[in-house]
Design a protein that fits this description.
By secondary structure, the protein is α/β, with parallel strands linked by helices. The chain has 11 helices and 14 strands. The protein folds into 3 domains: 85 residues, Arc Repressor Mutant, subunit A (Orthogonal Bundle); 107 residues, Periplasmic binding protein-like II (D-Maltodextrin-Binding Protein, domain 2); 106 residues, D-Maltodextrin-Binding Protein, domain 2, CATH 3.40.190.290. Strands 4-3-5-14-6 form a 5-stranded mixed beta sheet. The chain has a 5-stranded mixed beta sheet with strand order 11-8-12-7-13. The longest helix is centred in the N-terminal third of the chain and has 26 residues.
Length: 318
């Protein structure tokens, strides 16, 4: 199988998988379903392995087919990026960039960075989805995802943005009424505000003892309020509801204003959460994505709320 036949066969495979049938793939490609089937069969013969199992109703990739398809998509994206790169030599970066990010981070940090990007590149357009669910960047058609949490290993390119240090906070009014806890053992007697992730898991609170051991408090056992949106925990703490564990970047303005105080700063562990930017691996990245990635990383690096050192919190401890 020569290179041109191989490319046609790979495109036939991808379209068949995405469309769900050889007939649908043929309509998209402007060929017969028999031609699509022949292309896929020729590719399997050249590789010496079955890529998909067919029935009269369904197409299902084999394990080898799944692995091959992942690499094939990367190869085709590299070809698309090569064309974009040549076109970029004749014109400034333009086109649509799709971004997935969380509601709070998107509103407070991604959105403020976009006006300068669009002013610099007038032919660029940006579509941002503010959604706290984890998306499949390739399957769902995103160019960039900005994600926070414990980031798993991935085939995606991952660029660090910042650490998402957590801190315990409460309002001065709440502390005046209920007292300031001096040890983690006192927390269950307080009014706690806990975060429940969309998957149902409750974020634990971890503490380090003087002997170096680590203890964990499950706030769900004594929480009077459970919330899923991280910014809502900050608001609840500001509204004197109780003690909440929140990201420093979310609490910083309220600490500066005096609306919140830090609790148990010496013993509370800030966690291992991080914020990253991810995008599909490509041999050549489209210029529209390149300039967006560079601009956003620069904006995040200059955003002081995302890089507050832990020792700066001493001034705001209760």
């Amino acid at each position: 199988m020569d290179s041109s036949q191989r490319v046609r066969a790979i495109i036939s495979l991808i379209q068949a998988v995405d469309a769900g049938s050889f007939a649908a793939a043929g309509r998209i490609l402007g060929v017969t379903s028999a031609a699509v089937s022949k292309n896929v069969a020729g590719l399997e013969k050249a590789l010496g392995v079955r890529l998909m199992n067919r029935t009269t109703r369904t197409l299902k990739l084999t394990e080898e087919g799944e692995a091959f398809l992942r690499q094939a998509r990367i190869a085709l994206e590299a070809l698309d990026a090569a064309v974009d790169t040549i076109a970029a030599q004749r014109a400034e970066p333009g086109g649509r960039v799709r971004i997935s990010t969380s509601s709070a981070f998107g509103r407070d940090h991604v959105l403020p960075a976009l006006p300068a990007l669009l002013a610099r590149y007038p032919t660029l357009s940006v579509e941002v989805d503010f959604d706290d669910r984890i998306v499949d960047i390739v399957r769902d058609g995103y160019d960039i995802a900005v994600r926070g949490g414990t980031i798993p290993d991935s085939a995606l390119v991952t660029r660090p943005v910042c650490r998402l240090n957590a801190v315990l906070v409460a309002s001065p009014s709440y502390l005046a009424s209920h007292g300031v806890p001096h040890t983690p053992d006192e927390l269950p007697a307080h009014r706690l505000v806990a975060r429940r992730f969309l998957g149902g898991q409750v974020a634990p609170w971890n503490f380090k003892a003087t002997d170096g051991s680590i203890t964990t408090l499950d706030p769900a056992n004594s929480a009077m309020l459970m919330l899923s949106a991280p910014e809502s925990l900050v608001q609840a703490a500001c509204d004197n509801v109780g003690i909440a564990q929140v990201g420093v970047h979310l609490a910083w303005d309220h600490l500066l204003s005096g609306a919140l105080k830090v609790i148990l700063l010496r013993s509370h562990l800030p966690g291992a959460y991080e914020m990253v930017m991810q995008y599909p691996h490509r041999a050549l990245m489209a210029p529209r994505v390149q300039v967006t990635v560079k601009h956003l990383l620069g904006a995040f690096a200059a955003d002081k709320k995302l890089h507050v050192p832990l020792n700066a919190l001493d001034a705001y401890a209760a």
